[in-house]
Structures are given as C-alpha cells and as structure tokens.
Amino acid sequence: MLIMAEENKLFDVIVGIDFGTTFSGFSCEVIPEKKEPPKPETANTTKAKKKGNYAPELLLKKTSSAMYFKKDEKKIFEFGDKAEKANEDYKYPETKTEPKTEPKTEITTGTEAHTNSNVEPDVANNTEDKTESNPGDLVRRTKLLLDRTIKNHPDLPARLTLVHAVSRYLKKIRRNIHIEIETKYGHDPKLLKYKYYITVPASWSKQSRNIMRDAAISSKLVEKHNVDTQLEIIDEPVAAAVYAESKNTDIKFKKGDRYMICDAGGETVNLAVFEKDTIEGQKSLKEITFGAVTPSVSSLLDALFEELLEKRLPEWSEKGTSQPEDTQASTEVDGQKIKKYKPRDHVLNIYHMTLKENIGQDSIDIIENSLEKINEIIKATHKDIENNPKIFTPEEIRTEMFYPVVEIILKTIKKQIEIQKGIQRTEQDNQPDERKLKAIFITGGLGQSKYLQDKIKEKFGEEVEDNNIIGVEEGIMAVMKGAVLIHSNPIEISQKIHRRTYGIRLRPPQKKPPGSNGKTDRSNSLIESEKNVEENDYENDKKEKEKNRFHVYIRKNDPVIDNTWITKKMYWKAETLKVISLCAYNGDGEPPTHPKEEDIDTVITLDTGFSINKKDNSSSLEILILKMSFDIDIIDIKGSISNLEFKYPRVEDLTGEKNTLPFIEINPAPFSKFQKIFPFLRRTSKA
C-alpha cells in the first residue's frame, strides 16, 4: 500500500489531523506555489475568531478533545478546553469566578456577514448566555468508542451517534484550518483544494475507519463524491515513524534495520516496531509488531487517583456517610435551583481537567499548580483539622501515580522487544532474531517527560545500537506533522501484520463460561490421528474445559499473507457441536489456553448443524475440517465433513451484535432446491 496522493499538483493545502483521545490538533502546509506574505487581519477574520470557533492551541496539539453539548441538543456549545470549563461552570457554579452574565452579541450568519472574509460561520456560534442553569453533557474520550480493543470506555449521550459526535469536532477543526489559511497566507480558504490525512490507531478496524471517513464527509472536510481523492486514513505509528526519521537524519538506516516507535500519549501508549525495506527503489517499511499498554494509561491513572483519594479521605468514598450536609444541598443560580455535587465528585472533575494532563510534567511547580484547586476543596471541607494533613503534595502524586505507570510502560516495551526478537528473519531460520534495535523514538505528550525518557534509556540502552533512545523534538506533534510529511515523502508499507489473534472455541459464546487450566495446543490439528477414534476419546473432549479451549488460527503480529489457508481438524457430532465461535484476542504474546469471556471478543458464530449421509444411520463421530484465510478484518471460511463440502459468507470483524452464519453447500447435489421443499428427496439424513 502506497501512502501518498498520486498527483501532488491536485492540491493547494496539505493537512494532517490528529483527533486524539485526550488532545487534538492539526498541521497544515500550503504548497510553495501558493504561499504569499501574511496579510493584515481583517475585521471579519477577527470577528470569526471570537465566535467560539477559534482555538490556536490546535496547532500545538494542546486543545482538549472534549465537547460540551447542551441538554437535548446536538450542536456543540463549546469544544476543546472551553468545553471542560463550561462543564465546570455549570456543575459547580459556586466556584465560578468570572461574571455570571455575558451580553449577547448579535451575529449575522450567511455570506452577508463575510463579504471580506471567507471563513464560514458555524451553525453554533456560541454567543448565547453561558450561565443558563440547564446543564448539558461533557463528551470526553470519544475516540475510545472506536477502538474495539478497549473494553471500558465512556458512553455517548443517547441523542448522539459516533459519526455525529466526531463530525462536530472535525467541523471545529475545519473552521480553524480556514482561519489559519486566511490569517497566515492571505488566501480565500474556500477557493483552495485540500488534501487531508487523518491519523488513527493501528488497531482500528475497517468499520472504525469508515466511521471516521463518514464523519469527515459530514463535517464537510471532504466531499462525498471526491472522498477517495481528498482523504486518506493512515496509521498513527506510521505517521510518527516518518516524523521521527525526519528529525533524526544523523541515524543512517539500511535495509533490515529495525526501530521502535513509543507513542506515549496522555490516554494511551502505543508501541510499534518497523523494519526498513525497499521495493524497486521505493522507500518502504515492514510492520513487525504492534502493542499497547493495557489497560490504558488513562484508566490506570484514574484507578490510582481514586485509590489515593479513598485512602486519604475515606469519608468521601461512595459508601461514606460523613460528607458535610451543605455540600449536598442545592444552590440557586439565575433564579433556578441546581444540586451541588459532593466534594469527591468535584475533586474528580478538577483532576480530569488539570492534574491528569500534567501528571508527567517534569516541573514540580506545574503539578503543584494543578493540585491547588483540589487542595482548596479539601481544606474547605476539613477546616477543623489543624495543618490539614489530608491535602496532596506533588511528590506524593508522582510517587503514587506517575512512577507506577512508568513501570508498566517499561514492562510493555520489554515485551515488544522480546516479541520482535522471536520473529525470524526468514522462514528457514529457526533461531530467534537477536538483532538489536537501531533506535527507539519516543513521541506523544507523556513521551516528553524527561523522567520517562531517562527510565527507558536506563532500562533498554543495551538493547539498542549506540544507545539511540531519543525523545523526538516536538514529539507531541509527531503524528499530525508526520501525516503532512507523508504527502511529500511517500512511503510504501511492504508488509502488514495482523492486529489480533484469531481462533475458535467449540461452543457458543457465554457470559460466564467455566474456566479451567490446561496447556496450549500448538499443533495445527486438534487431533493427532484419525485412526482408532473411540467413543471414550470424544467423551473426554466433551468436558467444559475442552469446549472453552481457544484453538488459535492466526496470531497477532503474524504477517498478512494473501490466499493462505490454515486448516484445523476436530471431532464433530450432530447433537453436541451445533455451533462454533470464532473469537479474537487483543493481548500481546501467547493467548490464554482457556480465556475468560472478558479476555476475548466473539467475532461471529458459525452454524455447524450439518446433515450428512450415514448408510447405517449410526451416530458415530465425524472429522470436521475447517479452513480459514485471514486478511486484516476480513476472514474467509470453508470446510468439509464426510461427503459435504461447504463455505460461509465472508466474515468482517465488526463490533456490535453477533449473528450465527449459515453454511452454504458447495456443489450441491442435483435437485437440491426440491430437496428443501420435499424432505423425502433429500440425499442426506441427520446423523
């Protein structure tokens, strides 16, 4: 797959968008032929900036990905950092320091208001009174809903769909792109042609990528009839790799060299190992491994902070009964009563707004400032305690929260290094690959932490040539800037790898299957011999632990090879094996032999209620042969049993409700249509 536009001359502006879990941003580049000296800002451009559309921090990837929707409305009232502030003001009006009433500004929409400026007005111009007492919904971490590998994620308000929510945010980004183009380059943004590169996690399914594509169309970033030309969805690790290489040209890579990208964001930490390759002179990369810190960094930090809060302030626990009465009373704002939240809830909200995003900062002062409001709330509710020992210190936050997360990141990096070593250079080579990595590049917001960088260097210096462990310059913007670079520095992905481990269980999916221990079956066949099959053998296989066994077909990080069929054989009996579950495991390394239901995802259920011809009408065992061919997200399945050959409709690895796929007979017997209508014509009978 070649990642680039075939005709660079088709576009005037190249834009890379990183719609992040916690923070988002964009980078744009106007082609040299279109660059002009900056022009003075027009009155209408200034006016457009004041509409709530403008967030210059987007260019620095420091704008929150949060959106604030008014109750029962689908328009964004605020986005980015302002969304977090709006949520705070509505929920906790007693802490609001700004004036509670702002004059409404009359704004004319449409082309009349923009005779000298071509920045389109937003449908939600955010000029309404922001102190109304009708709280809305703060939508955070929307991106997690698109990642099938993440189990615990926030829910959207019922009135919103994923496409709608993401498109609302992309629409705000589009406004900012237009303002940037007009302000910096003096162009009419509506007359230019744009090429967009939107980055997504490597683990995303085709389904999730299509949702992002539909959101881009809905936001009017791209036109539906031209989407394939205007938009490319690319993997974040690839974009980060292109940027990291561009910033470290002193490291000379040759074919076969491998390096790791450690993209440590505020929410997730994703790891990828690439191998340098060339195809007919074209610069290319092989995917070697993909991995991630699980659970996410965000989930780990949330759990650690709540645990710290529970230890320090047990009276604030959800089970606690000693909360001050006045903190649960109601307050009056603009003549209407609003329920005050418990101090614990307020502290958690402040934690999400400030402390969480600064947890990895090297400066003690920044962490201390983030704790200021939290400690004020603690002091206000514990006035009777002398010197108030219940407040938090920056050193405590680092020791109890950040350092444990760093240790988990180090363990995940170690595992990825071990996995890439186990991948052979050639199929004939049975020895582990002991090549050292050429480099480790650290990107992302959390990746800017000097403490984290130093720990990675200390732990893995000997695993990397010349200790090339580098915190990439401006690494927080690596993904979105790398996306722009891809346009002028095309790169071929010469080898794709599987994002998940796929296998089967000889049973339908259940909510709470009984688990048991057992050794992993590494053989390609579930039976060692087809001879001397006895009823007793099958009776042993009927045990619950055998039904729950996860029989692996393809492993995560295995190369994707076209038209390759993997075969497994198993015992079949009509009354006991009516369905087979095709499942996926997201973890790294060897999957569990008997996974818990929460450890795997059911991809699809296969109907195995075959009818086969038995001359003696006996009920003995049959050997079922099941073959599968895997592409990324696409699975083809066929098989045979006795005198029956069959296949299933093509499987797409989608999230959502799972159905049971019927089998389709290959080369059915003559008059098969009549056999379905007239049972006495059937050539088969139930075993």
UniProtKB/TrEMBL annotation:
Organism, scientific name: Phycomyces blakesleeanus
InterPro entries tied to this protein: ATPase_NBD
Name assigned to this protein: Actin-like ATPase domain-containing protein
Source superkingdom: Eukaryota
Ranges annotated as biased composition (Basic and acidic residues): 90-105, 528-542
Location of the region described as Disordered in the Swiss-Prot/TrEMBL record: 90-135, 315-335, 500-542
Gene3D superfamilies: 3.30.420.40
Biased composition (Polar residues): 319-333
